[in-house]
Input
Amino acid sequence: MRKEVKAQILESIAAQIQETPNFYITDISGLNAAQTSKLRRDCFEKGIKLVVVKNTLFEKALKEMGNEEVTLLYPVLEGPTAIMYCETPNAPAKLIKKYADEGGEKPALKGAYVQECAFVGADKLTELCNIKSREELIADIVALLQSPARNVISALESAGGKLAGIVKTLSERE
Output
């Protein structure tokens, strides 16, 4: 491969990392054409970009990030490697888990860089599935903020008749 081609590939990898900073390093070797096509289709439907890369070029792109946490992922860059880029931090993990639950060994998780944290090893899959997206966290916060107000309103509504009686009794005492 010529230097110019390598530079272009390296540039596109770096641009993709800048665009979607959450990525999963997987192994999809051994999948036949139909299985690979199905995986790519599922990735497309979930908004995941699946790219097969050369380990050395991907490692160079990671080094250009200048992030200390990313260095933990260097050891997993061995053998056939495919990268899953995604805006939603847990979407690739859920897809990999779905394939594992169906009895497939591939795609296999090697490592991931999600929300500025490195996860190494297939044993982190459950942990990655449980990560909440930004929208899910906002929904949880809104629900927590609404809960006390709902309780007060509910208490006032259920005590509507009692409250009127208490107010009437207090006004009569004066």
About this structure: Helices lie at 3-19, 33-45, 55-65, 91-101, 125-129, 134-158, 160-173. The mean pLDDT is 84. Residues 134-158 form the longest helix (25 residues).
